[in-house]
Amino acid sequence: MILGHAHASVIEAIRAAAASGTSYGAPTEIEVLLAEEIIAAFPSVEKVRMVSSGTEATMTAIRLARGFTGRDLAIKFEGCYHGHSDGLLVKAGSGLATFGTPDSAGIPGDVARNTIVLPYNDPASLARVFEEQGDAIACVIVEPVAGNIGCVPPRPEFLNSMRELTLRHGSILIFDEVITGFRVAYGGAQELLGIKPDLTCLGKIIGGGLPAAAVGGRAEIMERLAPLGAVYQAGTLSGNPLAVTAGLATLKLLKELNPYPELERRGANLEKGLRDAAGELGIPSTVNRVGSMLTAFFAEGPVTDWPSAKRSNTDQYARFFRAMLDEGVYLAPSQFECAFVSYAHTDELIEKTIQAANKALQESIHR
Ligand SMILES: Cc1ncc(COP(=O)(O)O)c(C=O)c1O
Fold this sequence. Notes:
Aspartate Aminotransferase, domain 2; alpha/beta; three-stranded antiparallel sheet; globular; binds pyridoxal-5'-phosphate; Aspartate Aminotransferase, domain 1; 13 helices; eight-stranded mixed sheet; single chain
Protein backbone atom coordinates (compact mmCIF):
# COMPACT_ATOMS: atom_id res chain seq x y z
CA MET A 1 0.00 0.00 0.00
CA ILE A 2 2.40 2.62 -1.28
CA LEU A 3 -0.01 5.46 -0.43
CA GLY A 4 -1.02 3.97 2.93
CA HIS A 5 -4.34 2.38 3.81
CA ALA A 6 -7.68 3.86 2.75
CA HIS A 7 -6.34 6.84 0.79
CA ALA A 8 -9.39 9.10 0.42
CA SER A 9 -9.12 9.45 -3.38
CA VAL A 10 -8.73 5.71 -3.91
CA ILE A 11 -11.69 4.89 -1.66
CA GLU A 12 -13.83 7.49 -3.41
CA ALA A 13 -12.96 6.03 -6.83
CA ILE A 14 -13.88 2.53 -5.63
CA ARG A 15 -17.16 3.80 -4.18
CA ALA A 16 -18.12 5.49 -7.45
CA ALA A 17 -17.22 2.38 -9.51
CA ALA A 18 -19.17 0.08 -7.17
CA ALA A 19 -22.30 2.10 -7.75
CA SER A 20 -22.17 1.10 -11.43
CA GLY A 21 -21.58 -2.62 -10.87
CA THR A 22 -18.97 -4.92 -9.39
CA SER A 23 -18.33 -7.56 -12.04
CA TYR A 24 -19.27 -7.97 -15.70
CA GLY A 25 -17.21 -10.94 -16.87
CA ALA A 26 -16.11 -8.77 -19.78
CA PRO A 27 -13.43 -6.14 -20.38
CA THR A 28 -14.16 -2.54 -19.40
CA GLU A 29 -12.86 0.83 -20.55
CA ILE A 30 -11.12 1.38 -17.23
CA GLU A 31 -9.15 -1.85 -17.71
CA VAL A 32 -7.90 -0.49 -21.02
CA LEU A 33 -6.96 2.82 -19.40
CA LEU A 34 -4.96 0.98 -16.74
CA ALA A 35 -3.21 -1.09 -19.42
CA GLU A 36 -2.32 2.12 -21.28
CA GLU A 37 -0.89 3.60 -18.10
CA ILE A 38 1.25 0.49 -17.55
CA ILE A 39 2.49 0.62 -21.15
CA ALA A 40 3.41 4.29 -20.75
CA ALA A 41 5.34 3.54 -17.55
CA PHE A 42 7.20 0.43 -18.80
CA PRO A 43 8.87 0.86 -22.21
CA SER A 44 9.43 -2.93 -22.41
CA VAL A 45 5.66 -3.51 -22.28
CA GLU A 46 3.72 -3.22 -25.54
CA LYS A 47 0.65 -5.27 -24.60
CA VAL A 48 -0.95 -6.16 -21.29
CA ARG A 49 -3.22 -8.94 -20.01
CA MET A 50 -4.97 -8.25 -16.72
CA VAL A 51 -5.36 -11.05 -14.18
CA SER A 52 -6.35 -11.08 -10.52
CA SER A 53 -3.22 -12.09 -8.59
CA GLY A 54 0.55 -12.14 -8.85
CA THR A 55 0.36 -15.94 -8.92
CA GLU A 56 -1.73 -15.83 -12.09
CA ALA A 57 0.58 -13.26 -13.67
CA THR A 58 3.72 -15.39 -13.22
CA MET A 59 1.90 -18.62 -14.11
CA THR A 60 0.68 -17.04 -17.34
CA ALA A 61 4.09 -15.55 -18.13
CA ILE A 62 5.75 -18.96 -17.81
CA ARG A 63 3.11 -20.67 -19.96
CA LEU A 64 3.46 -17.92 -22.54
CA ALA A 65 7.25 -18.29 -22.61
CA ARG A 66 6.88 -22.05 -23.10
CA GLY A 67 4.26 -21.61 -25.82
CA PHE A 68 6.38 -19.01 -27.60
CA THR A 69 9.67 -20.93 -27.48
CA GLY A 70 8.32 -24.48 -27.71
CA ARG A 71 10.64 -25.37 -24.80
CA ASP A 72 9.88 -26.69 -21.31
CA LEU A 73 12.60 -25.64 -18.87
CA ALA A 74 12.23 -22.60 -16.62
CA ILE A 75 15.01 -21.17 -14.46
CA LYS A 76 14.24 -19.53 -11.13
CA PHE A 77 16.46 -18.43 -8.26
CA GLU A 78 16.78 -19.76 -4.76
CA GLY A 79 14.71 -17.72 -2.34
CA CYS A 80 12.71 -15.88 -5.00
CA TYR A 81 8.95 -16.31 -4.65
CA HIS A 82 6.69 -16.11 -7.66
CA GLY A 83 3.34 -17.16 -6.21
CA HIS A 84 1.89 -20.58 -5.54
CA SER A 85 1.54 -22.26 -8.92
CA ASP A 86 2.99 -25.79 -9.05
CA GLY A 87 6.07 -25.24 -11.17
CA LEU A 88 7.21 -22.17 -9.23
CA LEU A 89 6.94 -23.59 -5.73
CA VAL A 90 10.34 -25.09 -6.16
CA LYS A 91 12.94 -23.43 -4.07
CA ALA A 92 16.27 -24.82 -3.23
CA GLY A 93 18.76 -27.02 -4.92
CA SER A 94 22.25 -27.20 -3.52
CA GLY A 95 25.04 -27.23 -6.03
CA LEU A 96 25.12 -25.13 -9.15
CA ALA A 97 22.23 -26.36 -11.19
CA THR A 98 20.11 -28.98 -9.57
CA PHE A 99 16.81 -30.01 -10.97
CA GLY A 100 14.27 -28.86 -8.43
CA THR A 101 12.55 -30.94 -5.85
CA PRO A 102 9.09 -29.76 -4.82
CA ASP A 103 9.04 -27.36 -1.92
CA SER A 104 5.40 -27.93 -1.11
CA ALA A 105 3.53 -31.18 -0.71
CA GLY A 106 1.19 -31.97 -3.58
CA ILE A 107 3.45 -31.04 -6.46
CA PRO A 108 4.20 -33.84 -8.93
CA GLY A 109 7.89 -34.53 -9.48
CA ASP A 110 7.28 -34.37 -13.22
CA VAL A 111 6.23 -30.73 -12.88
CA ALA A 112 9.10 -29.76 -10.57
CA ARG A 113 11.62 -31.34 -12.91
CA ASN A 114 11.01 -28.60 -15.43
CA THR A 115 12.14 -25.91 -12.98
CA ILE A 116 15.87 -25.36 -12.54
CA VAL A 117 16.82 -23.55 -9.34
CA LEU A 118 20.01 -21.49 -9.25
CA PRO A 119 21.62 -19.24 -6.62
CA TYR A 120 20.65 -15.55 -6.70
CA ASN A 121 23.39 -13.11 -7.68
CA ASP A 122 25.59 -15.81 -9.19
CA PRO A 123 26.15 -15.14 -12.92
CA ALA A 124 28.66 -18.00 -13.23
CA SER A 125 26.14 -20.74 -12.43
CA LEU A 126 23.64 -19.19 -14.83
CA ALA A 127 26.24 -19.11 -17.60
CA ARG A 128 27.10 -22.76 -16.93
CA VAL A 129 23.48 -23.91 -17.22
CA PHE A 130 23.00 -21.97 -20.45
CA GLU A 131 26.17 -23.47 -21.83
CA GLU A 132 24.94 -26.99 -21.05
CA GLN A 133 21.27 -26.75 -22.00
CA GLY A 134 20.60 -23.23 -23.31
CA ASP A 135 18.58 -24.49 -26.26
CA ALA A 136 16.06 -26.18 -23.96
CA ILE A 137 15.45 -23.19 -21.68
CA ALA A 138 12.13 -21.46 -22.26
CA CYS A 139 12.62 -18.70 -19.73
CA VAL A 140 14.37 -17.20 -16.75
CA ILE A 141 12.13 -15.66 -14.11
CA VAL A 142 13.63 -13.36 -11.49
CA GLU A 143 12.74 -10.78 -8.88
CA PRO A 144 15.01 -8.02 -10.23
CA VAL A 145 15.34 -6.75 -6.67
CA ALA A 146 14.66 -9.74 -4.44
CA GLY A 147 11.99 -9.13 -1.85
CA ASN A 148 11.26 -12.65 -0.70
CA ILE A 149 14.70 -13.49 0.65
CA GLY A 150 14.23 -10.24 2.48
CA CYS A 151 15.48 -7.27 0.51
CA VAL A 152 18.47 -8.32 -1.59
CA PRO A 153 19.69 -5.98 -4.34
CA PRO A 154 20.97 -7.58 -7.54
CA ARG A 155 24.63 -7.35 -8.50
CA PRO A 156 24.71 -5.46 -11.81
CA GLU A 157 26.58 -8.31 -13.55
CA PHE A 158 23.89 -10.80 -12.45
CA LEU A 159 21.05 -9.16 -14.36
CA ASN A 160 23.24 -7.94 -17.21
CA SER A 161 24.53 -11.43 -17.95
CA MET A 162 20.99 -12.82 -17.58
CA ARG A 163 19.79 -10.42 -20.28
CA GLU A 164 22.71 -11.26 -22.52
CA LEU A 165 22.40 -15.06 -22.12
CA THR A 166 18.63 -15.14 -22.67
CA LEU A 167 18.96 -13.07 -25.83
CA ARG A 168 21.78 -15.23 -27.15
CA HIS A 169 19.85 -18.48 -26.54
CA GLY A 170 16.38 -17.30 -27.58
CA SER A 171 14.99 -17.67 -24.04
CA ILE A 172 12.44 -15.30 -22.55
CA LEU A 173 13.52 -13.07 -19.66
CA ILE A 174 10.67 -12.51 -17.20
CA PHE A 175 10.98 -9.82 -14.55
CA ASP A 176 8.64 -10.52 -11.66
CA GLU A 177 7.93 -6.94 -10.60
CA VAL A 178 4.91 -7.85 -8.48
CA ILE A 179 6.68 -6.11 -5.58
CA THR A 180 9.04 -3.71 -7.36
CA GLY A 181 6.69 -2.40 -10.07
CA PHE A 182 5.69 1.21 -9.27
CA ARG A 183 7.55 0.69 -5.94
CA VAL A 184 11.30 1.21 -6.44
CA ALA A 185 10.54 3.67 -9.28
CA TYR A 186 7.37 4.45 -11.24
CA GLY A 187 8.72 2.25 -14.05
CA GLY A 188 9.83 -0.44 -11.58
CA ALA A 189 13.22 -2.07 -11.15
CA GLN A 190 13.73 -2.12 -14.92
CA GLU A 191 13.66 1.69 -14.95
CA LEU A 192 15.96 1.89 -11.92
CA LEU A 193 18.44 -0.64 -13.31
CA GLY A 194 18.13 0.13 -17.01
CA ILE A 195 17.38 -3.42 -18.22
CA LYS A 196 14.52 -4.40 -20.55
CA PRO A 197 13.00 -7.84 -19.95
CA ASP A 198 10.78 -9.60 -22.50
CA LEU A 199 7.86 -10.07 -20.10
CA THR A 200 6.96 -8.27 -16.87
CA CYS A 201 4.63 -9.39 -14.09
CA LEU A 202 2.91 -6.77 -11.98
CA GLY A 203 0.59 -6.97 -8.97
CA LYS A 204 0.09 -5.37 -5.58
CA ILE A 205 0.31 -1.61 -6.35
CA ILE A 206 -1.58 -1.89 -9.65
CA GLY A 207 -4.62 -3.13 -7.73
CA GLY A 208 -4.51 -0.26 -5.25
CA GLY A 209 -5.28 -2.77 -2.48
CA LEU A 210 -7.81 -4.84 -4.45
CA PRO A 211 -7.03 -8.01 -6.43
CA ALA A 212 -5.50 -6.98 -9.75
CA ALA A 213 -2.31 -8.08 -11.45
CA ALA A 214 -0.96 -8.15 -14.98
CA VAL A 215 1.48 -9.70 -17.37
CA GLY A 216 2.82 -7.57 -20.19
CA GLY A 217 5.66 -7.45 -22.66
CA ARG A 218 6.72 -7.59 -26.26
CA ALA A 219 3.75 -7.67 -28.63
CA GLU A 220 4.98 -10.67 -30.63
CA ILE A 221 5.03 -12.73 -27.42
CA MET A 222 1.81 -11.35 -25.93
CA GLU A 223 -0.05 -12.08 -29.19
CA ARG A 224 0.47 -15.79 -28.54
CA LEU A 225 -2.14 -15.47 -25.77
CA ALA A 226 -5.70 -16.58 -26.55
CA PRO A 227 -7.80 -15.49 -28.33
CA LEU A 228 -5.15 -14.28 -30.80
CA GLY A 229 -2.82 -17.19 -30.07
CA ALA A 230 -2.83 -20.74 -28.80
CA VAL A 231 -1.68 -20.11 -25.19
CA TYR A 232 -4.84 -20.16 -23.12
CA GLN A 233 -5.62 -17.74 -20.33
CA ALA A 234 -8.92 -16.31 -19.12
CA GLY A 235 -10.51 -15.34 -15.82
CA THR A 236 -14.01 -14.28 -14.82
CA LEU A 237 -12.66 -11.69 -12.40
CA SER A 238 -9.61 -10.64 -14.45
CA GLY A 239 -9.60 -6.86 -14.79
CA ASN A 240 -12.38 -6.64 -12.23
CA PRO A 241 -13.87 -3.12 -12.48
CA LEU A 242 -13.35 -2.25 -8.80
CA ALA A 243 -9.77 -3.53 -8.76
CA VAL A 244 -8.70 -1.73 -11.94
CA THR A 245 -10.39 1.46 -10.70
CA ALA A 246 -8.44 1.31 -7.43
CA GLY A 247 -5.26 0.60 -9.40
CA LEU A 248 -5.73 3.44 -11.87
CA ALA A 249 -6.55 5.89 -9.05
CA THR A 250 -3.35 4.82 -7.27
CA LEU A 251 -1.19 5.21 -10.38
CA LYS A 252 -2.67 8.65 -11.10
CA LEU A 253 -1.79 9.77 -7.58
CA LEU A 254 1.72 8.33 -7.87
CA LYS A 255 2.23 10.32 -11.07
CA GLU A 256 0.93 13.52 -9.51
CA LEU A 257 2.77 13.18 -6.22
CA ASN A 258 6.02 11.61 -7.46
CA PRO A 259 6.66 10.26 -3.96
CA TYR A 260 9.84 8.40 -4.92
CA PRO A 261 12.48 10.96 -3.81
CA GLU A 262 10.63 11.35 -0.52
CA LEU A 263 10.29 7.57 -0.05
CA GLU A 264 14.02 7.26 -0.70
CA ARG A 265 14.80 9.86 1.98
CA ARG A 266 12.46 8.33 4.55
CA GLY A 267 13.68 4.82 3.73
CA ALA A 268 17.29 5.98 4.21
CA ASN A 269 16.39 7.46 7.61
CA LEU A 270 14.77 4.23 8.72
CA GLU A 271 17.73 2.22 7.45
CA LYS A 272 20.17 4.38 9.42
CA GLY A 273 17.99 4.30 12.53
CA LEU A 274 17.77 0.51 12.52
CA ARG A 275 21.46 0.05 11.78
CA ASP A 276 22.48 2.44 14.57
CA ALA A 277 20.07 0.85 17.06
CA ALA A 278 21.45 -2.64 16.47
CA GLY A 279 25.03 -1.35 16.30
CA GLU A 280 24.84 0.43 19.66
CA LEU A 281 23.69 -2.78 21.30
CA GLY A 282 26.31 -4.88 19.54
CA ILE A 283 23.65 -7.02 17.83
CA PRO A 284 25.00 -8.41 14.55
CA SER A 285 22.82 -7.04 11.77
CA THR A 286 22.81 -6.09 8.11
CA VAL A 287 20.27 -3.66 6.72
CA ASN A 288 19.62 -4.02 2.98
CA ARG A 289 17.54 -1.38 1.24
CA VAL A 290 16.43 -0.37 -2.24
CA GLY A 291 14.26 2.76 -2.10
CA SER A 292 11.31 2.06 0.17
CA MET A 293 11.98 -1.71 0.46
CA LEU A 294 14.22 -2.76 3.33
CA THR A 295 15.13 -5.66 5.58
CA ALA A 296 17.15 -5.70 8.79
CA PHE A 297 18.75 -9.15 8.83
CA PHE A 298 20.11 -10.30 12.18
CA ALA A 299 23.25 -11.59 10.51
CA GLU A 300 26.75 -10.39 9.73
CA GLY A 301 26.76 -9.08 6.17
CA PRO A 302 26.86 -8.97 3.36
CA VAL A 303 23.49 -10.61 2.64
CA THR A 304 23.49 -11.27 -1.09
CA ASP A 305 21.57 -14.52 -1.54
CA TRP A 306 19.54 -17.20 0.22
CA PRO A 307 22.42 -18.93 2.08
CA SER A 308 23.72 -15.64 3.48
CA ALA A 309 20.17 -14.60 4.49
CA LYS A 310 19.63 -17.99 6.13
CA ARG A 311 22.50 -17.28 8.52
CA SER A 312 20.21 -14.77 10.26
CA ASN A 313 19.28 -15.27 13.87
CA THR A 314 15.56 -15.87 13.39
CA ASP A 315 14.95 -16.27 17.15
CA GLN A 316 16.30 -12.75 17.58
CA TYR A 317 13.99 -11.59 14.78
CA ALA A 318 10.96 -13.25 16.41
CA ARG A 319 11.74 -11.53 19.75
CA PHE A 320 12.24 -8.21 17.95
CA PHE A 321 8.99 -8.66 16.00
CA ARG A 322 6.98 -9.27 19.20
CA ALA A 323 8.62 -6.42 21.07
CA MET A 324 7.89 -4.08 18.14
CA LEU A 325 4.27 -5.23 18.16
CA ASP A 326 4.11 -4.30 21.84
CA GLU A 327 5.34 -0.84 20.79
CA GLY A 328 2.54 -0.59 18.21
CA VAL A 329 4.68 -1.30 15.14
CA TYR A 330 3.58 -4.22 12.99
CA LEU A 331 6.55 -5.52 10.98
CA ALA A 332 6.51 -8.39 8.52
CA PRO A 333 6.35 -11.54 10.67
CA SER A 334 9.25 -13.28 8.90
CA GLN A 335 12.92 -12.37 8.81
CA PHE A 336 12.82 -13.15 5.09
CA GLU A 337 10.39 -10.39 4.08
CA CYS A 338 10.70 -6.67 3.50
CA ALA A 339 9.46 -3.69 5.40
CA PHE A 340 7.86 -1.18 3.02
CA VAL A 341 7.84 2.54 3.67
CA SER A 342 4.67 4.14 2.36
CA TYR A 343 3.87 7.77 1.60
CA ALA A 344 1.67 7.75 4.71
CA HIS A 345 4.71 7.09 6.88
CA THR A 346 5.58 10.66 7.82
CA ASP A 347 8.95 11.70 9.24
CA GLU A 348 7.32 11.62 12.65
CA LEU A 349 6.19 8.02 12.19
CA ILE A 350 9.62 6.99 10.94
CA GLU A 351 11.17 8.61 14.03
CA LYS A 352 8.67 6.81 16.28
CA THR A 353 9.52 3.53 14.55
CA ILE A 354 13.23 4.07 15.17
CA GLN A 355 12.58 4.84 18.84
CA ALA A 356 10.41 1.73 19.08
CA ALA A 357 13.19 -0.31 17.47
CA ASN A 358 15.72 0.96 20.03
CA LYS A 359 13.46 -0.12 22.86
CA ALA A 360 12.42 -3.39 21.21
CA LEU A 361 16.01 -4.40 20.49
CA GLN A 362 17.00 -3.76 24.10
CA GLU A 363 14.08 -5.86 25.28
CA SER A 364 14.77 -8.56 22.72
CA ILE A 365 18.15 -9.16 24.36
CA HIS A 366 16.46 -9.89 27.69
CA ARG A 367 13.35 -11.78 26.49
C1 LIG B 1 7.59 -11.20 -6.23
C2 LIG B 1 6.25 -11.84 -6.09
N1 LIG B 1 5.70 -12.48 -7.13
C3 LIG B 1 4.49 -13.06 -7.06
C4 LIG B 1 3.76 -13.02 -5.90
C5 LIG B 1 2.41 -13.67 -5.84
O1 LIG B 1 1.42 -12.70 -5.81
P1 LIG B 1 -0.02 -13.02 -5.18
O2 LIG B 1 0.18 -13.20 -3.71
O3 LIG B 1 -0.84 -11.81 -5.54
O4 LIG B 1 -0.53 -14.25 -5.85
C6 LIG B 1 4.28 -12.36 -4.79
C7 LIG B 1 3.52 -12.30 -3.53
O5 LIG B 1 3.96 -11.84 -2.51
C8 LIG B 1 5.55 -11.76 -4.87
O6 LIG B 1 6.12 -11.13 -3.83
